Amino acid sequence: MSSIKQKRLEGIIRKDISDIIQFEVKDADVGFVTITDVEVSNDHSYAKVYVSFLGKNARAQAGLKALNRAKGFIRSALSQRLSIRRTPELTFVLDTTEEQGRHIDEIIASLHEDETESEAPEETTEVTEEETEEETDA
User: Fold this and answer.
1) 90 in Cβ contact with 71 (< 8 Å)
2) Closest-CA residue to 91 (of 78, 75, 103)
3) What are residue 37's DSSP bridge partners?
4) CA 13, 65, 29, 58 torsion: positive or negative?
5) How far apart, in whole angstroms, are the C-alpha atoms of residue 34 and residue 31?
6) Which pLDDT value is given to residue 45?
7) Alpha helices in the chain (DSSP H)
8) Is 88 helix (H, G, I), strand (E, B) or coil?
9) For range 6-10, the mean pLDDT
10) pLDDT tens for residues 100-134?
11) Position 135 confidence tier, pLDDT thresholds 50, 70, 90
12) CA distances from 34 to 12, 22, 23, 111 (A)
């Protein structure tokens, strides 16, 4: 369980790394990157930075390699911005939660399509039964 102080530190690191990548990293391979989450260890010596990229999987892999090449620069720039004793060692991880969410949405949509397809013939038979009852009453 993370404390309030740790959550605050994670938010500050996420914002600072985002600013550093956007304004100070000059590598063109980084491209359009979004820092989705940061997890800091309890002793603040390691930080796992979750990133997502705009584009295809090959583009994301190239961007992840570029971030790993620049992580020493990013860590030193981060240490100048933070006022803590030790700057955490950064590990960049590709965030796949968006893809997993999209996959789950597709599964749910296909289940709803299957339900509507299986219910459609039953509804038409119910309507015809109601029509026949109305015709017999008249």
Assistant:
1) yes
2) 75
3) 50
4) negative
5) 10
6) 94
7) 4-23, 57-69, 71-81, 97-137
8) coil
9) 93
10) 888 899 999 988 888 887 775 554 455 555 555 55
11) low
12) 15, 10, 13, 32
What is the distance between the alpha carbons of residues 32 and 21, in angstroms, rounded to a whole number?
10
Dihedral angle computed from the Cα positions of residues 73, 74, 79 and 85, in that order, rounded to the nearest 10 degrees: -100
Residues 30 and 17: beta-carbon distance below 8 Å: no
Tokens found for residue 108: 């749910």
User: What's residue 104's pLDDT?
Assistant: 93
Q: Is the pLDDT of residue 31 over 80?
A: yes
Sheet with 46-53, side-by-side order of all strands: 33-40, 46-53, 89-94
For residue range 32-71, list pLDDT tens digits in order: 899 999 999 999 999 999 999 888 888 889 999 999 999 9
What are the φ/ψ torsions at residue 27 (nearest 5 degrees)?
A: -75, 125
Domain boundaries, the chain: 4-95, 96-138
Which superfamily does 4-95 belong to?
A: K homology (KH) domain (3.30.300.20)
Match 């002793």 to its residue by tokens: 43
